[in-house]
Amino acid sequence: MPRTSSIGRHENGQNFLVNTAVIDRIIAQVAATDGPILEIGPGGGALTAPLTRLNRPITAVEVDSHRARALVRRLGGGARIIERDYLRYQHPSTPHAVVSSVPFHLTTAILRKLLREPGWNHATLLVQWEVARRRAGVGGASLLTAQWWPWYDFSLLERVPAHAFRPMPSVDGGVITISRRMLLPVAERNDYQRFVQAVFTGRGRSLAQIVAGATTLSRREADAWLASAAPKARLPKQLSAANWVSLWSEHSARSASHRARGSRQTVRRGAGASQRVSR
Q: Where is the stretch described as Disordered (predicted)?
């Protein structure tokens, strides 16, 4: 039976990881990365203490002053403890790894902030199971995942039972990793994310109808694209990262073609008007 670490107070809505077998596997994931380590919400230090054995610079951002002071006393100079709300913390711009047992009630807010932060190249996160599953695209991706897929790879590592936490939550947890990648230029991110939202919230009785209504593809083109790229998809959440990049590329190419055609027509109309005036 796995050993357990010391149990802390249930503060700020957090359930503390106490199963050391799970802790060891999270530490192993971080050990496979490079550079300084940033821990979000260290709580009682269940991850922070073993992280110090990696002999890498560690910064832990903790919102609770009681716990921050306790960590300073416990770890001494083994880690830099910053007493601050992570949602107001700015990441360093230099490369670093991120790790966290994320408070379940703050998962979405923390993920949204993390994905917009510079510098870090790999994150290992323990989150609510349903969030972990959806972020990794298992059983269908969430809107947030689809919006960030071209720049991040989300992988599901394991399910963590509720009894691995104290106090025990009503749901299981899941460990995910997030790694940076570049399937599309960063300059296209805002337009791409609006495009994904339009498709996710589009209306239609079929995916082809939704795609045709939310993009520059005609219904016939949407049918052809789905038959070739995603024949088994029935809903936007069933499209893969590669599907989204392909669909965005098709949409962008047609948008550029429409703009070019419109510009040529405008030039021709302007030329015709000039000829009529000269007569």
A: 255-279
